[in-house]
Amino acid sequence: MSIDIIGPEAEAHLTWHGLMDALRAGHKLPKAEIGDTLLYRDEDTLLSRAAWIDGVGSAVKTANIFPGNPGNGKPLILGAVNVYSDEDGGLLALVDFELVTKWKTAGGSLLGAAQLARKDSETILIVGAGAVGHSLREAYGALFPDARFQIWNRTLAKAEAFAAEYPGTEVAPDLETAVRRADIVTSATMVTDPILDGDWFQPGQHIDIIGAYRPDMREVNDAAILRSAIHVDSRDTTIGHIGEIQDPIDRGLITEENILSDFYDLEAGKMTRRSDDEITLFKNGGGAHLDLMTSRYILDAWQSR
């Protein structure tokens, strides 16, 4: 059996709309079995995320996280995604880790926005000028090609460099002012304490939060949670795992019933905006099943090139 080894060159054959179609199709299939494994050596971490979907196959995404690497001119995270056949379990492909992560992360947020944001959204604020912020600019630009984009970053120079890469993107000097004026706010920061205040939110906004991935991390405060209609990409990978959702549950501010939908509710029509004035909040938590769906989309696109 031949094995495809797929790197960044596959990106030329991918589209954000194509990925959203693949994610929708994947969530019509039987629910994924998922499992994570974490191993540690001092400050280094080996993270493996596995998923199996009947009708798609299985995948294991492995990330080696070495904090000392950047000081030696090497990437912080190195890894790959192994994609296996649903028919016989054979290895089908090795897919570049960064390629899968980029498209999975931004693609999940984009699908959430396609379901929840107002179709007439005109101003999109990106919070965080890192790698995820760049992919969000590409993804949201595909769904809202006529939108006005702004970028806010704690370091102004990074925001200015970001804006220079994307014509028509403006630097937002003040976060509160920018949030109040935006139709969509998409945030991908590595903060532990909330950076977005729900008191800034306006009727009809869509808030997309990505950065928090541990129980001790939050990008939005309690007011944001209490004022918003909450949706997530996966209940299984957010409830009990991510501070954004679990911390308010633990303190009795909300219950699991306040999570109105996840992607497995797409077919039932539950992930939708209920009024033009509703503030919708989407938590992008990631998950190995989304890595699997994205990897299969990349593999199929590569083989059909």
List keywords for this structure.
alpha/beta; six-stranded mixed sheet; 305 residues; globular; eight-stranded parallel sheet; 14 strands; Rossmann fold; ornithine cyclodeaminase, domain 1; 9 helices; 2 domains
In angstroms, what is the radius of gyration? 19 Å
Overall strand count: 14
CATH superfamily of the largest domain: NAD(P)-binding Rossmann-like Domain
**Major sheet description:** 8 strands, parallel
Report the mean per-residue pLDDT as an integer: 95
CATH architecture type of the largest domain: 3-Layer(aba) Sandwich
Structural overview:
By secondary structure, this protein is α/β, with parallel strands linked by helices. The protein has two domains: 112 residues, ornithine cyclodeaminase, domain 1, CATH 3.30.1780.10; 181 residues, Rossmann fold, CATH 3.40.50. It is 31% helix and 25% strand. It is built from nine helices and 14 strands. The strands form two sheets. The chain has an eight-stranded parallel sheet, sandwiched between helices. β2 and β3 form a beta hairpin. α1 packs across α2 and α2 packs across α9. The longest helix is centred in the middle third of the chain and has 20 residues. The protein is globular, with a radius of gyration of 19 Å. The protein starts with a strand and ends with a helix. The model has no long low-confidence stretch (mean pLDDT 95).
What is shown here, in short?
The chain has 305 residues and is α/β, with parallel strands linked by helices. Helix content is 31%, strand content 25%. The protein is globular.
